[in-house]
Design a protein that fits this description.
single chain, 166 residues, elongated
């Protein structure tokens, strides 16, 4: 059984990379959402009977709480995502372990934050959809963007890096 799994892994490395990316993205998303909840509870503990009420049976929070929560949660998720992307997700490290790689990773992630915040604004503030429903939908969109952008720009093969830098 182990040989079959190893053979399947070797013949489908991109599939396993995507699976690892989804696992890391899931952990980073949980960190993001937990930190967002902490910020919202910290700013508006008067409207939440307990911390867990931030996540269900919730009253409508102020825009400032969702915006700050989204931003600070993003930063926490970014740190988790960057660290695990280097050590766990991508076999090809590309530029990732350099200062330039970190800056590019952060810039690409800031675009993801922009998509996230715009989505939260449109979905929650303008369309009045529950903020956790919007957060989940926007997170899926950003997840796809993150994988594609980071795979193509930061974690690309050395041969592609050398060809593109000449």
């Amino acid at each position: 059984m182990k040989e079959k799994l190893n053979k399947f892994y070797l013949s489908h490395p991109t599939l396993f990379e995507v699976i690892r990316f989804l696992i890391v993205g899931g952990v980073a998303t949980l960190v993001d959402m937990f930190v967002m909840g902490c910020v919202m509870y910290g700013l508006e503990s008067n409207i939440y009977p307990t911390f867990w009420n931030v996540f269900w049976n919730t009253p409508t929070p102020k825009v400032l709480s969702t915006v700050l929560g989204t931003g600070i949660g993003f930063i926490a998720g970014l740190i988790v995502n960057y660290t695990f992307s280097i050590f766990f997700v991508f076999n090809e490290k590309g530029y990732s372990r350099s200062a330039k790689g970190f800056v590019i990773f952060t810039l690409l992630s800031l675009v993801g934050l922009g998509i996230n915040m715009l989505g939260m604004y449109l979905g929650f503030d303008l369309l009045h959809i529950h903020y956790w429903i919007v957060k989940i939908i926007v997170t899926l969109i950003v997840l796809i963007y993150n994988y594609i952008s980071k795979r193509l720009i930061i974690f690309r093969t050395k041969s592609n890096i050398n060809v593109n830098t000449n």
